[in-house]
Amino acid sequence: AQSVTQPDIHITVSEGASLELRCNYSYGATPYLFWYVQSPGQGLQLLLKYFSGDTLVQGIKGFEAEFKRSQSSFNLRKPSVHWSDAAEYFCAVARSGGSYIPTFGRGTSLIVHP
Amino acid sequence: EAGVTQFPSHSVIEKGQTVTLRCDPISGHDNLYWYRRVMGKEIKFLLHFVKESKQDESGMPNNRFLAERTGGTYSTLKVQPAELEDSGVYFCASSPLGKGLNTIYFGEGSWLTVV
User: Fold this and answer.
1) CA distance A33 to chain B (A)
2) Least CB–CB distance from B33: residue in A97, A98, A101
3) How confident is the model at residue A76 (pLDDT cuts 50, 70, 90)?
4) What is the pLDDT, as a whole number, of residue B82?
5) Quick check: B13 and B74 in contact, CB under 8 A?
6) Among the residues of B1-115, which ranges form H helices?
7) Which among A72, A109, A104, A71 has a CA at the least distance from the CA of A89?
8) Which candidate among A11, A41, B13, B39 keeps its CA 20 to 30 Å from the CA of A88?
9) How many other CB atoms sit within 10 Å of the CB of residue B49?
10) Strand A108-113 vs strand A10-14: parallel, antiparallel, or unpaired?
11) Dihedral in degrees, nearest 10, Cα atoms A32, A37, A42, A46
12) In terms of Cα–Cα distance, which of B4, B3, B10, B2 is closest to B112?
């Protein structure tokens, strides 16, 4: 069974600083990988996804993530954080091919200081 | 195109009462999923429908939870009787069936508070 580890429960950054949220997955084959964001009082929004091809994936809101097979990682990055980025971020992994069920990490809460 | 819609968006009920959450998937999406997030914890899978059939209900916590998807369109998740630990956000998601680069689309969630 696949699993996801988000080692950081909380991350605090200053507005304008760079950001990297860590995600490690466990899955035997090439996975489908996702990052979702949940802003306060909102639902889950897909930031980006990796299925195959280029290992550097661009998403919405200026986010990107890099798939590193050797490290089983899919870290999320943003060069300059805005106050509106304060939210919870969830990494998810799913089995490749056909119907699948994503497994989520426990999330990382991002706090942005002015 | 309408996204996944969930109703109600917020619900506050007393312990022992019954609540029914509804999910309308994106039209044509045969896969429908229910997830739950208890405050501060991970988003946990509850169950998966393919059309009207339960494909996987391994995540359902106990028999107080009943999910249905009659006709393979919308789905309901009933909690009866509700307990305090059932409080959280219940997410519904849908995706098209078949091979390929599928993506799951999530609704905005139904926020349940049991007091």
Assistant:
1) 10
2) A101
3) very high
4) 96
5) no
6) none
7) A109
8) B13
9) 23
10) parallel
11) -40
12) B10
